[in-house]
Write a structure and sequence with these properties.
It is a single chain. The chain is mainly α and 227 residues long. Helix content is 78%, strand content 0%. The chain is built from eight helices and no strands. Helix 2 packs antiparallel against helix 6, helix 4 crosses helix 5 and helix 6 packs antiparallel against helix 7.
Amino acid sequence: MVIEATDTAALVIFLIVWIGYSWFTERGPLAGRGLSSAINQQRERWMRVMFRRDLRMIDTAIMAGLQQGTAFFASACIFAIGGSFAMLGSAERIAVIASDLPFYGRLDRALVEFKLLGLVMIFAYAFFKFGWAYRLFNYCSILIGAIPMHADAEANPAEAERAVVRAARLNQQAGLNFNSGLRAIFFALAYLGWFLGPYALFLTTFLVLMILANRQFFSPARKAFAD
């Protein structure tokens, strides 16, 4: 297997952009101004509003919807992993097609297999994130059930407050893992550019970065939380 210097550089930049963007949106200096942070605040507000409701069917319906969405993406990752393994059997044909492209040089079967295995790893990472998010949403449902009714909380308001905070924090952690899995899928799409060559990977990586950054900090959805 022959890996050119441009391929190595493209792969390193791809990983740096992915890891750097994840850190920037979750722990960076502007993390508090992003859409994810605004949603996290609303998650805590949701738990506090729920605490004041006597009937919580709407809250259990919301939790069921969050779990179903997470399960859908986890299942999609399993199919993507299976499809990537199936493509390993066509690695030779993919290498021939890519080598015939005018903007790509020599490409051997081993390099194609290496790229496909990298794609499998990305989807596997996303699956584990979605799987953990699904489990955390399940745990959060249990914590919601443990929150006392507003009338009963008067006997021990401190414990009721702790129950609300626990449910809110676990819900936020579930959302964080869900976002990580979804981000991995977006960067998996950028990774597909590598099959067209290292320069295509440069282009798709920064294209995905701009799309995600715009949605996180400048989208209409973010502006909806401006107040």
